[in-house]
Amino acid sequence: MSGIVLSNAVRQNLSSLQATADLLATTQSRLSSGKKVNSALDNPTNFFTAASLDSRSSDINNLLDGIGNGIQIIQAANTGISSLTKLVDSAKSIANQALQSVAGYSSKSSVTTTIAGATADDLRGTSTYSNGLAQSIGLQDGQGTPGVVDGDTLLGGVAATKTGGTVGGSGITAGTALSALGANKPVAGDTMTVNGRTITFASGGAPDKATLPTGSGVEGQLVTDGKGNSTVFLDSGTVQDVMNAIDLASGVQKVTITGGDATLAPSSGTAAAVTSNALVLSTSTGSDLSISGNNTLLSAFGLNSGATGAGTFKAERTASPAAGDGVSRANMIQADSTLSINGKTITFKDAAIPANADYGFGKVGSQNVITDGNGNSTVYLQGGTIKDVLTAVDIASGAQTAPVSNGAASLAVTAGSEASKVLSGGQLQISSGLAGDLKISGTGNALSALGLAGNQGTATSFSVARTATAGGITGKTLSFEAFNGGTAVNVTIGDGTNGTVKSLADLNSALSVNNLAASIDTTGKLTISASNDYASSTIGSTESGGKIGGTAASLFSTASAPVADVNAQNTRANLVTQYNNIIQQIKTTAQDASFNGVNLLGGDTLKLVFNETGKSTLSIQGVTFDPAGLGLSSLKSGKDFIDNANTNKVLSSLNTASSTLRSQASALGSNLSIVQTRQDFSKNLINVLQTGSSNLTLADTNEEAANSQALSTRQSIAVSALSLANSSQQSVLQLLR
């Protein structure tokens, strides 16, 4: 074919057609592949750069599956923690039920002691008292140069007589009729007072004894009530009747009344008489004589102290001059004076002691004292002694007892007391007795006469205080070693000052830090027991501690063991069973919290790779969240939930487990956030890489379509041009033919 020669025009058209065909082929290739760089020949730089970007994008895309699995593993673990948290909360609820249920013990371990008189305000107990003593001022006897008295010194003095004035007119004798005493003779209604007793003059004659009131008696024309008061009847009455009435009132004579008959007999002093037309009157040994009345009446008997108005006639005893025989005039007690001692009364009576005591009363041995058995006594001044007064004082105070039986009182010193006595200096040493502090007050002159009115003689009372000693456990110490982890206690019982313990509140404040509590009942029984939280513990045991000590320890009983309440313990045992069921669920829930064979709650480790080089990784260390890993364990009936302290230990473990779960949930949440962030980052990075690659290799289809259309047109034109060129050559050839 080398012999064929193409014209230049044909050649050019053919060359142009070939070029257009090549361009059209390239354009169609780009349109079909969508890429403008399909091989290194198209654009080596873009081709290899895009290949690198695609390769990295593919590698990262392959890692996304692993990241997605990691997220599911973390979420599985987080779901497991949520379930475990609910289970732990359920276990807490059961433990709280145990706390709120009836105490597991009907009585707790305790030590007890009984302190007489102890109260919640004062644990020391009743103060004990010993007999107190106090002294009067010294009493003197009746010597010219005064000496001192002793127990046998008589209370009375030496009876004295005094002669009245001479009665004028016809004179006077014991038998003189009262109606013959002249113008000043007594008339019905007249009265005179003798030593506080009353003599009344009445008209007529003495009544028959059968008509007299009970206790009254008649003798001649005199009717007496047996108590020193008399009535003299004027119709047949004589001076002797009046003198008898004066002697009965003054205590010179005594009377015995039987069936209405009054029998008079000497008592002390000298019976009244008439000498030389004048009355001679005597005091008794027990009191001075004091007669008062209207002077007109008194003048009829020569006893007036003036012509008219009120008058008096007095005679005074004298003191015995013998050493110690009788008291001085200043120390003589007036008849009818009294002493009041702690609500009991001692009465001083100007009379000799009766032969027999009235019913219900008793004579105290051979003494001149009669008592009613209730602490009230009468001391008889005629023959009475200082010792008799002290005996009556002791009976009133309780220093001595004198129970009455068949008219006699048996005297005995009360245990712990001592009898009052006269000291060598004449002072009265008064015992308080044990029943209470002694306070003596009085009427008349009894208080001053006995030296009980103070140095000035003006005091209105005399007191004798018992000697008080501290309460039953004052000053004693009480200690407890540490009980169930508490703080050891050592207290001193006292008045509440300087750190001492006085009240129950003080003691409980000290014991509370050692898991102990105290209580006291109305009998003074003090009980120190384990607190409610430690109801199952025994005070002083090796396991629990709390050994008692101190000087008061010997007063307390041996610690009692706690006594279980069967019903309450059965309830608590049921709660233990429920708790253990939850513990088992915690175990299985932790085992089931796995995904694709990885369990972050079972101790597995999750490692995630985030880039194609393997240098960007995250390792999540798993935990073991079975019961043991959470610090929990199954409970045992009869050992756990038996008291509040034991239950609180379980609650503490559950609270710790809750905190652990919350902490791990937080950690998983943080890791999940990291992984999800990296997952999003990887997806975005893949998109960036793929976009970059596409930007380097992808064709613009609009542009390529337009190019294809233009090239097709060009090709068509080229074909036409080639055809025209070829036709031109054919025409020349035809011409040559």
TrEMBL record:
Pfam families: DUF1522, Flagellin_C, Flagellin_N
One GO CC term, this protein: extracellular region
Domain DUF1522 per the UniProt entry, residue ranges: 190-295, 337-446
Location(s) in or outside the cell: Secreted; Bacterial flagellum
Residue stretches spanning the membrane: none
Xref: SUPFAM superfamilies: Phase 1 flagellin (SSF64518)
GO MF annotations, alphabetized: structural molecule activity
Residue ranges the record marks as coiled coil: none
Domain Flagellin N-terminal, residue spans: 12-117
Gene3D superfamilies named in the record: f41 fragment of flagellin, N-terminal domain
Flagellin C-terminal domain boundaries: 654-736
Main location: secreted
Entry keyword set: Bacterial flagellum, Secreted
Cited InterPro entries: DUF1522, Flagellin_C, Flagellin_N
Family, as annotated: Belongs to the bacterial flagellin family.
Matches recorded under NCBIfam families: PRK12688.1 (NF009330)
Function of the protein: Flagellin is the subunit protein which polymerizes to form the filaments of bacterial flagella.
Annotated protein name in UniProt: Flagellin
Organism: Rhodopseudomonas palustris (strain BisB5)
